[in-house]
Write a structure and sequence with these properties.
Blueprint: H1 10-24, E1 29-41, E2 44-52, E3 59-67, H2 69-79, H3 81-87, E4 93-103, E5 107-115, H4 117-137, E6 155-160, H5 165-175, E7 184-189, H6 197-210, E8 217-221, H7 236-243, E9 249-252, H8 261-265, E10 268-270, H9 273-367, H10 369-374, E11 379-382, E12 385-386, E13 398-402, E14 407-411
Helix pairs in contact: 2-3, 5-9, 6-7
């Protein structure tokens, strides 16, 4: 090593660097960066600032920053505590006014004196649009909306802060509803703003999904706030968790103007917790109205059916009465006709019987033995029976012969067969 080479102490080097920085950056200046990490200690906020490569998102610059507690209070009064809290969240794009500081012992850091909320919101809008495009590409925007709402929303899983005024308003509106509906509300406590919001909401959504049979729907509720309060609900992780839910998710995150990504992927999005309560009541009232309308229709149809049946019964009754009267009239006419015809029929019947009797009488007269005897014939009997064959008479038999007038007795001496 050459003895002519100058050697500096570390302190001398750092002091030189400090003077160079002070000489070149005497006044505060605005820079653009991204907030990587933030932590608070005794009211001071320590920031890790980075700049990433546009192509592979690899860090190409990094520095530490600090907001002293007195500056933080000034910024909070200027922009609002909620706005400041939302802006100072990991991943947020920042435009901050800084003063370059270098200390011989503690090194290089950036003292934050002011910040630009509009820039952060603009960066968030670009990030929000990219997130929406990614969700659309993955088919998640309409996924939860495709779940059919139950006919009645009664068992409700609510994600909110237990101390949030919006949650209390929601519970009060449902508990004291004028319709008399009863609800089972289960609170799953979560942060609804700040850096813990994303982690806690995602964890509770997964917990509810495991108990899906116990609930009809999940609701994410928070009270009102500034536009920056919605930044946590533009998270891709929350949107993905909502789209993966097996239950319909209803959001009421309390902002009248802007729509968060959580609203876009939810089944139903309303503006406020009280609007969410009103939606639940209206949904159940609509179901009840449908039931009542169905009851009215059933009653109306039953009445119509009863009236038609009564009309048909009356028609059948009249038809039966008319038919019975006609049958009675016909029967009476037939009876009258029969009454008129019976004497004639009886007379004709008697005449027929008389003619038959006369005929039979003539037949009997024709067959009467006396009539035959009158014609010259005789009847011979042997032992009281008519003799038909001479061969039946033995010799010496006593026979009796009857003539038309008188009888004669004979003794058989000889018989002769008739060759016929």
């Amino acid at each position: 090593m050459s003895v002519d080479e100058t050697t500096y102490t570390l302190y001398e080097l750092n002091e030189y660097v400090r003077r160079v920085l002070l000489l070149n950056f005497e006044e505060p200046l605005w820079i653009q960066c991204e907030l990587s990490q933030v932590r608070e200690s005794r009211g001071h906020f320590y920031l890790e600032l980075i700049q990433q490569n546009d192509e592979d998102k690899a860090p190409i610059a990094q520095a530490s920053g600090i907001i002293w507690s007195n500056h933080y209070r000034q910024l909070a009064r200027l922009h609002g505590y909620h706005t400041l809290e939302q802006i100072l969240s990991p991943g947020a794009g920042l435009r901050i006014k800084i003063k370059v500081d270098f200390h011989e012992r503690y090194g290089y850091k950036l003292i934050v004196e002011d910040l630009d909320p509009d820039f952060t919101l603009g960066q968030n809008a670009l990030k929000k649009q990219r997130t929406i495009e990614q969700l659309a590409l993955e088919g998640r925007l309409e996924k939860n909306a495709g779940i059919t709402l139950p006919f009645v929303l009664q068992r409700l899983a609510v994600l909110s802060s237990p101390e949030a005024a919006g949650y209390k308003d929601f519970v009060h509106q449902l508990s004291d509803n004028p319709l008399g509906y009863r609800f089972q509300i289960t609170l799953f406590p979560t942060a609804v703003q700040g850096e813990r919001t994303e982690t806690e909401i995602c964890a509770q959504l997964r917990h509810i999904a495991k108990r899906k049979r116990e609930f009809d729907a999940a609701l994410i509720l928070r009270g009102g706030g500034s536009r920056t309060d919605l930044m946590a609900f533009d998270s891709y992780a929350i949107a993905k968790a909502i789209s993966d839910m097996p239950l319909p998710v209803i959001t009421g995150i309390g902002h009248e103007i802007d729509t968060s990504i959580a609203d876009l992927v939810a089944h139903t999005a309303v503006k406020t917790p009280t609007a969410a309560a009103a939606f639940v009541l209206e949904h159940n009232e609509y179901f009840e109205a449908n039931l009542l309308e169905m009851q009215r229709q059933i009653n109306r149809l039953a009445n119509q059916y009863h009236q038609l049946a009564q009309l048909r019964l009356n028609q059948l009754t009249e038809q039966i009465r008319w038919t019975a009267r006609e049958q009675i009239r016909t029967a009476l006419r037939e009876l009258e006709q029969m009454a008129e015809e019976i004497p004639q029929l009886a007379h004709r019947l008697l005449q027929n019987h008389k003619r038959q009797l006369d005929f039979f009488q003539r037949q009997l007269q024709a067959l009467d033995p006396a009539h035959i005897l009158r014609r010259g014939f005789s009847i011979t009997t042997y032992k009281g029976k008519a003799v038909l064959n001479a061969a039946d008479l033995p010799k010496g038999a006593q026979i009796h012969t009857r003539f038309y007038r008188g009888t004669a007795s004979s003794t058989i001496e000889k018989t002769q067969d008739d060759e016929r």
